[in-house]
Amino acid sequence: TKSLKETLQEVIPGKQEQLKKLKAEHAQTVVGDVKVENIIGGMRGIKAMLWEASVLDPNEGIRFHGLSIPDCQKVLPPAPGGKEIIAESMLWLLLTGQVPTEAQTRQLSRELAEKGDLPPFVEKLVDSFPATLHPMTQLGMGVAALNHDSLFQAAYEKGIKKSEYWTYTLDDCINLIARLPTLAARIYRNVYKSGTPLPALNKDLDLIGNYSALLGFGDNHNLTEYLRLYIALHGDHEGGNASAHTAHLVGSTLSDPYLSYSAALFALAGPLHGLANQEVLRWQMAMQAELGSDVSHEQIKEYLWKTLKSGQVVPGYGHGVLRNPDPRFIALQEFCDARPELQESSIIRLVKKTYEVAPDVLKEHGKTKNPYPNVDATSGCVLHHYGLTEFKYYTVIFGVSRALGALTQLVWARALGLPLERPKSLSMDAIEKLIK
Ligand code: NMX
Ligand code: MLT
Fold first, then answer.
1. In a 3-state reduction of DSSP, which class is residue 3?
2. Which of 135, 145, 249, 394 is spaced 20 to 30 Å from 32 by Cα?
3. Considering only CA atoms, which of 283, 287, 244, 298 is closest in space to residue 267?
């Protein structure tokens, strides 16, 4: 069985050749233009970043190396005894562009479990945080502190060749992915289950099986399977989203993967990005508290208008790129549709009913370019139903997941020798000069 590193070693030369050819033959080819609206509009629509693992189509949604979510659900090996995609098989696909065999998936699971323990000083650091510090702040600080052990940084200090950067970067990325669930679970226990001891990592379990057990949900098979799917699906969403882009930008300075991903987590912590899943649950529960469980479409419509008229966004709806319902939302809805206990859940039913009404209300409201649900419209509500009720923690789970894509890109950035990111900015006066 070829290891992940050996497989990458084989794939990299072909990609390096592809980049060389693009540079040699098409460096001056125009693939888009930049309008003033792009400059003042958060760079929406500008094709300005190389990102290998996935591409987002506005109508079809995400594809990972060309594979759609349903494709991945068919071909990526699940955990033993499970059905859902797991983090390891998704990571392998993202990094190599290949579907791993079952043996390769298990080998990677074992490697991650063997590398998952936290250094004692990080445990102490995290244990010293007040329980009132937001779990995302704790996660970002913990990840930054893990850079104490960065192999890339140590090797860089000694002096290594550029062609060797990627191997040390890969080692750091694997160590970080292995430690993220342990760190994230420790934060959960400290904040919400103070005094309960964390179990040891089980070397025969997959990464998210272990995460679920560390959180205290090892016996909850439904939640474990949901976490596996959730984490695989949130793994990558091309490069322009705020967290992935942050990791890429910071990594382009040759900052190590821990520091780069720590920065990404603080972008994920914003309510327009990863924090939206906690906001959705808060909003749907407030709706339920006000209207009761047996609510009509008309009542939901009124509630939506109330939210919009008070100047707030409807959380879980809209997207910077997507112009159709998010296929990740659809995959999570299918997970719900296949499970009777979720069909009976009042909060899941409310999410579904909201989905039946919200797009038309948002269209009538006329502001958002995408009136359809994104992945966050449902993700937190399922966690809540299965007993993970502490919604301030939800973005941490997203943070465990996004490492798969953001760290994959760091490996590719080093393997391809991508440069420091440094776009040109303009003042309004400078823009006006260009127009004249
Ligand atoms: N409810 C109300 N208004 C909205 C919504 C919404 N769900 N989405 C966009 N708008 C407004 C937006 O605020 C803007 O108004 P204004 O001109 O007054 O500034 C206008 O519509 C145009 O925005 P768009 O170009 O459609 O959206 P943009 O690309 O700027 O932002 C989001 C994308 C996702 C930030 C935005 O749709 C939003 O705030 N949604 C709610 C929060 C959310 O669900 N975020 C999760 C993102 C997914 N994730 O996983 O990270
Ligand atoms: C994501 O998964 O990062 C979000 O859908 C936001 C985005 O893609 O811009």
1. coil
2. 249
3. 244
